[in-house]
Amino acid sequence: MSKIWENIFRKKRNADSIEEILVKIPIFQDLTPRELKTIKSILYQREYKTNEFIFKEGDAGLGMYIIFNGKVIITCGNDKQTLAELEEGDFFGELSLLDESPRSASAVAKTPCILLCFFKPELLDIIERNPKLGCKIIFKLAWTIGERLKSTNEQLKALNCQSRKSE
Predict the structure, then answer these.
(1) pLDDT score, position 148
(2) What residues in the chain have per-residue pLDDT under 50?
(3) DSSP label at 90?
(4) Exposure check for the chain: N or C terminus, fewer CB within 10 A?
(5) Distance between CA 10 and CA 162 in Å, rounded?
(6) Per-residue pLDDT at 13
(7) CA distances (Å), origin 108, targets 66, 85, 112, 140, 160
(8) pLDDT at 7 (0 to 100)
(9) What are the structural domain ranges in the chain?
(10) Among 85, 110, 108, 116, which residue's Cα sits nearest to residue 22?
């Protein structure tokens, strides 16, 4: 199975707690222990069964998801092409914190999963109540999305070069 999109932020994970996972996610890694506690207090925890959709391509984007336990696959198109296979400590869906566009891919639990959910209304509340913390999160969110975009561009460039060589 060929994956188009890889998690460029993946590091070896041996996290036992929510805090240990949060500090390894670029969006939250520069936060103080107190700020991390604030984030932890507004996360929702959801459980998914194997093959259960977390969201479907075209659904409204509500927020980002962090895998606390289990594996998730990201697919797109009618043929359900696998873009990524994610595991504990990985995150996805972060663009929906900034953008109101429909989801561009589907997320499906490959194994039973426990996900931590960070939704846009909670981010907007943080921005209103604690602008300094809100700005830290938004700037890291923008950086994260930029890094993913650069990585995707490099992968597309490599694919384009491969297809030209085979012509």
Answers:
(1) 83
(2) 1-4, 8, 11-15
(3) -
(4) C
(5) 26
(6) 43
(7) 13, 10, 10, 26, 29
(8) 52
(9) 18-165
(10) 116
pTM of the model: 0.83
3-state secondary structure (DSSP) of residue 13: coil
What is the structure's pLDDT at 14? Answer: 41
d(CA 103, CA 90): 18
Buried b (16+ CB within 10 A) or exposed e, 125-163: ebeeeeeebbebbbebbeebbeebeeeeeeeeeeeeeee
- The answer to whether residues 123 and 70 touch, using CB atoms and an 8 Å cutoff, is no
DSSP E strand boundaries for 50-112: 53-55, 63-69, 72-76, 81-86, 91-92, 106-109
Q: In the prediction, which pLDDT does 28 show?
A: 95
What's the CATH code, domain 18-165?
A: 2.60.120.10
Q: Which two tokens stand for residue 21?
A: 């996972």
Separation CA 21–CA 155 (nearest Å): 27
Query: DSSP class of residue 95?
Result: G
CA Rg value for the chain:
16
**DSSP code of 89?**
T
Among 38, 47, 33, which Cα is nearest to 115's?
A: 47
